C-alpha cells in the first residue's frame, strides 16, 4: 500500500476507534453496556466503517460528516458477531471469550439487539434530508444478513449444497454488509445514481472475494496470524467454497472422502491434513485464489468511473485486503 | 365501550391483521419467514398499532396513511416477544409453543432480529419528510425496551429491588413501546409539539398502568381468560408491583414469608394461595388497583387538550383495557 494511503487509513481507523471507545461511557444499566463495550474493544480491522468513509471519499475527495454513519455500520457488524457466536456456539472471538460465554445467553441476545438499535441511532445523525433512502439501504443490509445467516444454518443440515447456493448465501451473509457500507458512503456523498450503483457493486464483489478468501485462510493461514485453529471449517464440515468446489471436481476415493466429511458433519482434527492434500491435489486452492482475484477485479473495475486520485485510498484498502497471507 | 367505537377498533384491528397475514408471503428462506409468520399469527390485541392509529386520529380526526407504521410497532413488539421468550425460557406464548421450543435457539434469535429490521422497513414507508425524527423516536423505543429487559434480568439476582426501581424498569420494558406508538402516531399526524408531548405522556402512563394490571392479572385473573397458569409470578418469585409493595408494607411473619419467597427465587405452586392471602390481607390488591386507576387517570388527563370527538376512540380503547377482569 502506498504510504500516504496507509497513513490515511490508519488515521481514519483511529478516528473510528476513538469514537467507539467512548460510545457507552456512563450509560446504564451496566449489565447491558459493559458487554457492549467489551465487544467493541475486541478491535478488528474496522473494515466496514473504512469502506463507508472511503466510498464517500471516492465521490467527494475528502471525508467529513460521516463518522456517525461509519460507527453505525460497525455496530451493525458487531451485532451480527454477538448473535452469530451464540448460534455457532463459539467460545472465542478475536482471541477473547465470546459474550454468551463470558456473561450469559440473555446478556448476549440483549447486547446484540441493543447494538443494532444504537446503530440506527448513529446512522440517523448523519442522514440529513436523505434519511428515508439511507435507512432503507441500511435495513436491507440487516435483512440480508439475517437471511444469509439463516441460509448458512440451513446448510448445516443440507448435504447437497451447490456452489450456486453457496454464492447466494455469502452474498447475503457477508457481501451485503460491505455493500451496505459502500452504498451508504456514496449516498451520504450525494453521489449520482450511476456512482451509487458502482460503489454498491464494488462492495458486493469485494464482499464475495473477502468471504472466499476467508474460507482459504481458514485452511492455509498461519495459526498465529489468523488467531484461531487452522482447519476449523474442515473439522466442523462447513460448506465452504473449498469443500463445495472439491465435491464438484473430485472423483473416486477423494469424492468418497469428501462425502464422508459432509455426512459426518466434520472430521477429527487429525484428518485435517488429508483434506488439505485433497484440496491441493484437485487444484481447489488455485481455483479459490483465482475466484478471489476475479471478484477483486470486478470490484476494482467499478471504480474506474471515479477520479483516480479520489478513489486511490479505496483501491489501496482493497489490495491490502487480498494481501492477507495464505 | 360505545358500540361505534367498538366497531371502529374492530375494523382497524382487522386492517392490521390483514396486512400482517400477508407480510411474508413468498419470502425466502422459509427457515426464517415461516417462524416469522407463526409468531404474527399468534394474534394478540394488536394494542400498539391500535394506539398508533388512534393517536393519529386524536390529532387528525381520521386514520389514513399510517398502516405501515402501525405494522412496524407490532413487528417491534413481536421481536421483543420472541427474544424475551428465549431469555425467560418460556414454553408457551398466547397458548402456543414458543419459537425457540418449536424450532430452535438460532431460529428464534434470527427471527427476532429480522422482525426488528423489517419493522424499520415498514416504518420508513410512512415517514415522508419526517423520517429522521420518527426513526429516532422508534429507535429510542427499541433501546429502552432492551435496557428495561436488562434491568428485569438484573432483578432476578437482586434481592433488594425497590418499588422505585420497579417503576423505572417497567417504564422502559413496557411503557416505552406504548409511548413510542402514540408518539409516532402523533408525529405522523403532523401534531404540534404540545400535542406530541401529550400523546407521548399518554402512552407512557397507559403503559405503566398496563404493566401493574398485568401483575394483578397474573394473580387474580381466571385461568381461562388469561391463557396461562395463575400465580406464575409468585411461583417464579418475580419482583412485581404486588410483591415489592407487600415487602414494603408487611411486618413480622408475613414479611419473613415474603423474604423467603425472594431468597428462594419462588415457591411451590401449592403455596400460591398463601401469598395471595398475604396480598389481600395487606391491602396490596386495592393498592395495585388504585395505582392502575391513578395512571389511567394521568393518561386520560393528557387527552383533554384534544377535540373530544377525535379522541373518543382512544379514550374508549383505554377504558376497555382496564376493564379486563380481575
Please, could you describe this protein's structure?
The structure is a homodimer of 326-residue chains. Chain A is mainly α and 326 residues long. The first copy, chain A, has a single domain (3-306), classed as Orthogonal Bundle (Farnesyl Diphosphate Synthase), CATH 1.10.600.10. Chain A has helices at residues 3-21, 30-41, 47-60, 67-87, 99-102, 105-125, 131-156, 163-188, 193-220, 223-226, 232-236, 241-249, 252-263, 272-281, 284-302, 308-322; strands spanning 92-93, 96-97. In chain A, strand 1 and strand 2 (96-97) form a beta hairpin. In chain A, helix 4 (67-87) packs antiparallel against helix 8 (163-188) and helix 7 runs antiparallel to helix 8 (163-188). The radius of gyration of chain A is 20 Å and the shape is globular. The A-B interface holds A 28-29, 31-32, 79, 83, 86-87, 105-107, 109-110, 112-114, 116-118, 120-121, 124, 127, 129, 131-132, 135-136, 138-140, 142-143, 146-147, 149-151, 153-154 and B 28-29, 31-32, 79, 83, 86-87, 105-107, 109-110, 112-114, 116-118, 120-121, 124, 127, 129, 131-132, 135-136, 138-140, 142-143, 146-147, 149-151, 153-154.
Amino acid at each position: 500500500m502506498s504510504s500516504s494511503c496507509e497513513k490515511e487509513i490508519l488515521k481514519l481507523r483511529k478516528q473510528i476507534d476513538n469514537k467507539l471507545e467512548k460510545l457507552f461511557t456512563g450509560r446504564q444499566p451496566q449489565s447491558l453496556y459493559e458487554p457492549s463495550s467489551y465487544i467493541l474493544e475486541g478491535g478488528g480491522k474496522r473494515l466496514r466503517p473504512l469502506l463507508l468513509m472511503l466510498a464517500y471519499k471516492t465521490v467527494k475527495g475528502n471525508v467529513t460528516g460521516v463518522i456517525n454513519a461509519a460507527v453505525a455500520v460497525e455496530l451493525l457488524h458487531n451485532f451480527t458477531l454477538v448473535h452469530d457466536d451464540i448460534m455457532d456456539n463459539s467460545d472465542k472471538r478475536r482471541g477473547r471469550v465470546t459474550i454468551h460465554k463470558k456473561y450469559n445467553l440473555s446478556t448476549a441476545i440483549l447486547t446484540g439487539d441493543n447494538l443494532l438499535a444504537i446503530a440506527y441511532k448513529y446512522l440517523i445523525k448523519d442522514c440529513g434530508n436523505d434519511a428515508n433512502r439511507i435507512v432503507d439501504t441500511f435495513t436491507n443490509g440487516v435483512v440480508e444478513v439475517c437471511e444469509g445467516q439463516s441460509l448458512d444454518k440451513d446448510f448445516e443440515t443440507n448435504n447437497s449444497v451447490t456452489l450456486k447456493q453457496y454464492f447466494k448465501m455469502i452474498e447475503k451473509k457477508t457481501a451485503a454488509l460491505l455493500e451496505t457500507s459502500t452504498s451508504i458512503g456514496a449516498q451520504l456523498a450525494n453521489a449520482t445514481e450511476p456512482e451509487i450503483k458502482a460503489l454498491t457493486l464494488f462492495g458486493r464483489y469485494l464482499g464475495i472475494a473477502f468471504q472466499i478468501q476467508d474460507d482459504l485462510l481458514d485452511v492455509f493461514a498461519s495459526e498465529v496470524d489468523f488467531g484461531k485453529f487452522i482447519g476449523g471449517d474442515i473439522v466442523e464440515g462447513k460448506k465452504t467454497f473449498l469443500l463445495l468446489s472439491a465435491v464438484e471436481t473430485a472423483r473416486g476415493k477423494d469424492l468418497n472422502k469428501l462425502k464422508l466429511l459432509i455426512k459426518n458433519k466434520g472430521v477429527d482434527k487429525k484428518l485435517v491434513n488429508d483434506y488439505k492434500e485433497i484440496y491441493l491435489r484437485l487444484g481447489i486452492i488455485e481455483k479459490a485464489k483465482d475466484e478471489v482475484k476475479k471478484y477483486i477485479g470486478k470490484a476494482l473495475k467499478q471504480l474506474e468511473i471515479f477520479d483516480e486520485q479520489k478513489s486511490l485510498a479505496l483501491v489501496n484498502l482493497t489490495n491490502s485486503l487480498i494481501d492477507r497471507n495464505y
